[in-house]
Specification:
Layout (H helix, E strand, L loop, with lengths): L4 E7 L5 E7 L4 E5 L6 H9 L5 E6 L2 E4 L12 E4 L11 H6 L7 H10 L16 H14 L4 E5 L7 H13 L8 E4 L3 H7 L2 E6 L2 E6 L9 H6 L2
Parallel strand pairs: 3-8, 3-9, 6-7, 7-8
Antiparallel strand pairs: 1-2, 1-4, 4-5, 9-10
């Protein structure tokens, strides 16, 4: 039976992290906290992109424990970094196809259609795309890996408010495309409330509280921090 994502990670530096997260299958966790709290580092540790100790397990597969660490390229992670992280020399379609285990143009086009990109725009390189279009390609590329977990790092930070609203709605709809547990890092609590089933508040490398009521509870540490 699918168990979702379980991560308990520590890291001495360059940013100290000591955090634990649980995300059930098919649910989204908003990871919120001040700049420099370690949110991006935590995502990269789950993906295997930075060294860390502890345990990372997705469903019945262990990626990290005290005996071994599965390399990043073998972890089924759909990762969207700030700005999208697209390859500048590839057009939108090829940026998606490069993430596939087996190249399948029809499947890549279907994923791009799912994020509302079709036609001539698929032959444009990232510098020819708007910020919103770049993020849509990045989301399609993340799904192209058939991910066991989706990790989104500030996917709406570089776009204006109308595009942001459209992307928030799009990410919410991705639940119907992928049942993978999702973590989304965001500074915007309205975005978090519109997408997430639960929230985690991270400060100085530690997740100090998490759960479905963190955003709504005025007495939570997150809301006390927001109110100074």
């Amino acid at each position: 039976m699918a168990e979702g994502l379980s991560a308990t990670l520590t890291q001495a530096g360059p940013l100290a992290v000591d955090a634990a997260l649980q995300v059930p299958p098919g649910q989204t966790l908003a990871l919120v906290g001040p700049s420099g709290a370690g949110k991006t580092t935590l995502l990269k540790a789950i993906a295997g992109l930075v060294p860390a100790q502890g345990r990372v397990a997705v469903d019945n597969e262990t990626w990290l424990d005290d005996r071994r660490s599965v390399p990043a390229w073998r972890r089924r992670v759909g990762l969207v970094l700030q700005g999208g992280g697209l390859f500048p020399h590839l057009d939108g379609l090829r940026n998606v196809m490069i993430a596939q285990a087996r190249r399948d143009e029809d499947a890549a086009r279907a994923l791009l259609a799912a994020v509302q990109l079709e036609g001539a725009v698929l032959q444009r390189r990232p510098q020819q795309l708007s910020g919103g279009e770049q993020m849509r390609v990045a989301l399609a590329r993340a799904l192209a890996r058939d991910p066991a977990v989706l990790l989104l790092d500030e996917p709406f930070a570089a776009v204006d408010r109308p595009v942001r609203r459209a992307l928030v709605a799009l990410v919410a709809r991705l639940r119907s495309v992928s049942a993978a547990p999702m973590i989304i890092v965001t500074h915007d609590l309205d975005d978090a409330a519109g997408i997430a089933d639960a929230a985690a508040f991270m400060v100085a490398g530690r997740v100090v509280e998490q759960g479905p009521d963190v955003l709504a509870n005025p007495a939570s540490q997150l809301n006390r921090w927001l109110n100074g």
